[in-house]
Structures are given as C-alpha cells and as structure tokens.
Amino acid sequence: MNPEELKRRNFENEFIFLTSRSSGPGGQNVNKVNTKVELRFNLLLTSSFTENEKELILNKLKNKINKESEIIVVSQSERTQLMNKVKATEKFYNLISKAMTMPKKRTSTRPTLSSKIKRLEGKRIRGIIKKMRKDSGESIE
Fold first, then answer.
1. Which among 40, 134, 122 is positioned nearest to 85, based on CA atoms?
2. One domain for residues 93 and 121
3. Mind listing the pLDDT tens digit for each residue in 47-86?
4. Residues 39 and 79 in one domain
5. Contact 139, 130 (CB under 8 A)
6. Taking the chain, what is the end-to-end CA distance rounded to the nearest angstrom?
7. pLDDT at position 48, please?
8. Is 14 contained in some domain?
9. What distance lies between CA 130 and its chain's CA centroid?
C-alpha cells in the first residue's frame, strides 16, 4: 500500500503532536523556540485499520511502538515547527506503507546454459594457469 492511499483514510484527527526544543539547525533560535515535533498515533484505538492490518503493523513495527501501543515519529531537522510537523506526518505515512506492503515471494531460478559454460571455462583457464605454475616452478601473472 502506498502513502497516497493511506492519506485518503484521514488519520490527521487521531494524531497527537507534542513539541519541544530541538537540537537541530537554527543557531540561537534553537534555545528559544520549540521546533522539535513528536507525532503520536495510538494504533489500538484507531478505527481506520482492520484488525488484520493492526496485527501486521504491530508485528512489523514493534521497535517503534511503545507500551501504550502508540507509534512515535520524531522530526527535528527543519528550522520551523510547521515544517517539522509536515516531515513527521510524511515519515508516519511512509512507515505505515512500508509495514503494510507484503514482500514479493522469490521465485527460484536455475542457471542458464551459457552461464554454466562460462563458469566452467573460467575454471578450466584457472586450472591451466595453476598447472603451468606447478610445471615451471615460477609464478606467472
């Protein structure tokens, strides 16, 4: 599932934003203004996901979810609170979309005839080089 499809579900009214002082860029402004944004989203209380989706997200993002089943995303790279808020929401949508996409199953393949021949030819040439070294007693390369 891509982030655009997730945005249509409209999670914004369930987001909780907390702000604090950032350690990012901004010079002396960093010491005065709360630009760091922390986005919290309670996964168990939301009605936007089905139970299967919630279970999938809980399993895949268990390192990013706290004991209260909240997904926490932090952004402090920008100089303004508004831009950090936008970045945090983008990070959230990307995180959820990555967790909800199922990996493609790998289909096993066999080596082609030409790749087998090429490999055996390389081994044969390497063997000849080693045999020549053995016979003459000096190294060739």
1. 40
2. no
3. 888 888 888 888 888 888 889 889 999 998 888 889 999 9
4. yes
5. no
6. 54
7. 82
8. yes
9. 46
Answer yes or no: do 87 and 33 share one domain: yes
Strand 16-20 relative to strand 70-75, pairing: unpaired
Tokens of 112: 């082609």
121 in the same domain as 82: no
Total-model pTM: 0.67
Residues 68 and 15 in one domain: yes
Residue pair 102/89 in contact (Cβ under 8 Å)? The answer is: no
Average pLDDT in the 85-102 region?
89
Neighbours of 7 (CB within 10 A): 14
Examine residue 21 and state whether it is found in any structural domain, yes or no: yes
Tokens coding 82 = 């508004």
Q: Beta-carbon neighbour count of residue 59 at 10 Å?
A: 9
Give me the domain span that covers residue 24: 3-100
For Cα atoms 113, 117, 120, give the angle at the middle one, nearest 5 degrees.
Answer: 140
Q: Give me the residue label for tokens 């003459």.
A: 136
Q: Given this model, what pLDDT does residue 62 score?
A: 86
Query: Collapsing DSSP states into helix, strand and coil, what is residue 119?
Result: helix
What is the domain count for the chain? Answer: 2
